[in-house]
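pls design
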């Protein structure tokens, strides 16, 4: 057996206005335990969203947002998952754009691994993926890739964005990704997503 892998993703301060943050639900990251009642947590988060934005939720706004958050949490971050889930929206009732981030032991040659986990050479991409270097404040120099994918049974392309880093100090590879068929939404959120990438860090318990 190899040595245990201890580093985990840490998050520097990010503007809470566009983000709802759902930490890993494996019960092993810092102070965050698996929620016994994710529905109650999502309802509290929905109430805070309306309050923080000083908007009137009306008779059904809190229930609508709470149900949306719950569906996202249950489908994208069920109990036992070890990734972070970030839900982006400009207004509480917007359909969230999910962004996920995960960490694992470094493996293989750096450049080859970063290209692999960002799918920089994806043969299924509609066009040649756009690959560029990206230097994060905390994780150092990495790679980001934008590509379009066809969807079986749908006329709409899927817009996919991935970031990845090799953090030699901790022997870790980090990846952050999102995908949606709402291309305009990805473009509009790109600055916030990039700021999120800068906010990722590594913590060793």
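designed seq:
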């Amino acid at each position: 057996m190899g040595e245990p892998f201890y580093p985990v993703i840490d998050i520097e301060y990010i503007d809470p206005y566009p983000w709802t943050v759902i930490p890993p639900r494996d019960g092993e990251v810092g102070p965050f335990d698996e929620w016994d009642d994710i529905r109650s947590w999502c309802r509290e988060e929905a109430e805070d969203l309306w309050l923080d934005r000083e908007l009137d939720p009306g008779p059904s706004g809190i229930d609508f947002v709470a149900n949306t958050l719950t569906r996202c949490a249950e489908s994208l971050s069920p109990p036992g998952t070890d990734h972070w889930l970030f839900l982006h929206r400009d207004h509480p009732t917007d359909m969230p754009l999910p962004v996920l981030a995960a960490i694992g032991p470094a493996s293989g040659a750096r450049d080859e691994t970063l290209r692999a986990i960002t799918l920089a050479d994806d043969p299924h991409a509609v066009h040649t993926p756009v690959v560029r270097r990206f230097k994060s404040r905390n994780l150092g120099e990495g790679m980001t890739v934008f590509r379009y994918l066809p969807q079986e049974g749908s006329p709409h392309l899927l817009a996919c964005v991935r970031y990845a880093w090799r953090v030699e100090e901790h022997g870790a590879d980090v990846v952050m990704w999102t995908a949606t068929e709402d291309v305009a939404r990805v473009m509009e959120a790109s600055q916030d997503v990039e700021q999120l990438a800068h906010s990722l860090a590594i913590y060793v318990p």
